[in-house]
Structure formats: structure tokens, C-alpha cells
Amino acid sequence: MRIDIITCLPRLLESPFSDSILNRAQQKGLVAVAIHDLREYTTNKHRTTDDYAFGGGAGMVMMIEPIDNCITKLKSERPYDDIIYMSPDGELLTQPLANELSLKKNLILLCGHYKGVDERVREHLITREISIGNYVLSGGELAAAVVADSVIRLLPGVLNDETSALSDSFQDGLVAPPVYTRPAEYKGWKVPDVLLSGHEAKISQWKYEKSLERTKARRPGLLDGN
Is the pTM of this model over 0.90? Predict the structure, then answer.
């Protein structure tokens, strides 16, 4: 198996993969883990990977271009079974999901930061979104390490006792609406007109409706306080 992790803070991932089971799995050749610095894929001379959100609001948004550049390069080198975005409103990581992912050959894990990634990344570039719980971290690196750990330990030969993995145990409110940043159009993929209108009331209503729609579709339990 090969796992490629895309991040703007690669040093955060040095430790999880340099010790213990995950390190031994790599040394045995059972898995290859590659960390990719997103700043190496931006055309901005300042190597920035984020920008202000269209429609206003606090926080920065990760730009689509460097993410697309990195994913495109990786896909030119090998096929990938899944391109996964670590997201608070994604599919909850469970043991059955880890079991499923352990059967894949090549995976990409994209680490979010700030207010998240430009929504067009989620619409056009990734195949799956995963959350490790109903809470927010400073970035997706720790979550990516959790996913990788849960998957790698299931690979044949990683644990000394092949059967030990088989016996393992298993804030209120709406989820965030889609977010976008420059450019307003990329490869024909456009930012919704309302976010470019400057009409604060309409923007607020759009954001609320999208938040409610996404919560009902993806995390309905949150509406019941669960």
C-alpha cells in the first residue's frame, strides 16, 4: 500500500510515522508513506496556499490551484483508489471504514487548514471525505495520521500477531457551508454568484440554507443535539 499525504505543514507529520508500528511497517516494505509540502505546488512567489473567502467572514481558505497541481502530479504517476479530504463534516471514521480502506492499494489524504478548502476541491478533486469525530482540530494533519494509523495496522504482516487487529474494540449546531476563494472561475468551475454580489443579507441567507442543507444530508443527528 502507498499513502500520500498533502499538507502545508509537513513537519507536523514527521513524528507519527518515524516510530513504533508505523515506522516498522515502512521498514518492512509493507507500506510507503509520502508527505507532500503543498507550498511546493503553488505558483505564488510568496508560496502562499490560502486567501480570503469570497463573501466575507473570518478566516482564510485554502486555494484550489496548489491542491490541484499536487493531486494532478500524483495521479500522473499512479492510479489512486481514493482521494480523501480530512473534514469535520465528512464520513465518520469507524472500524469497518478502516477495514475497507486497508484493502486499497493507493490513497491520497488531503489535510485542511484555516476555514477549510475551496469548495471546488471537494466538488471536483476528491472522492471521499472523512472525519475522526465531532470536534475541530487546528489542521488535518493529526486526523490524517489517525486514519493512516488505523489503516496501516490492519495490513498483513504489520502486527506481530496477525489476529490481534481482529479483536480490537471499537458541539451542537450546523456544519459549515461551502467556502470559496480566488480565482472566481477555475477550469470552468464557478463560485456561486451570490458570494460575489456584496449583498450581506443574501450571502448570510445563502450560507444558512447551505449549512442546513448539508447538515440534514450529512450529519442529521446534529439537528437533534446528538
Answer: no
Dist. CA 117–CA 112, nearest whole Å: 6
Written out in words, the top-level CATH class of the domain with range 2-167 is alpha beta
Give me the residues paired with residue 85 across strands.
110, 129
CA distance 209 to 156: 46
**DSSP state letters, 115-171:** T-B-HHHHHHT-SEEEESSSS--SBSHHHHHHHHHHHHTTSTTTSSSTTGGGG----
131 vs 93: CA distance, rounded Å = 6
- pLDDT tens digit sequence for 50-97: 999 999 988 999 999 999 999 999 999 999 999 999 998 899 998 889
**What are 132-144's pLDDT values in tens digits?**
998 889 999 999 9
Contacts of 4 (CB under 8 A, 6+ apart): 33, 34, 36, 74, 80, 106, 107, 108, 109
| Cis, peptide link before residue 183, omega less than 30° from 0 | yes
Whether the pLDDT of residue 225 is over 70: the answer is: no
For residue 55, how far is the Cα from the chain centroid? 23
Check whether 170 has a pLDDT greater than 50.
Answer: no
Domain positions in the chain:
2-167
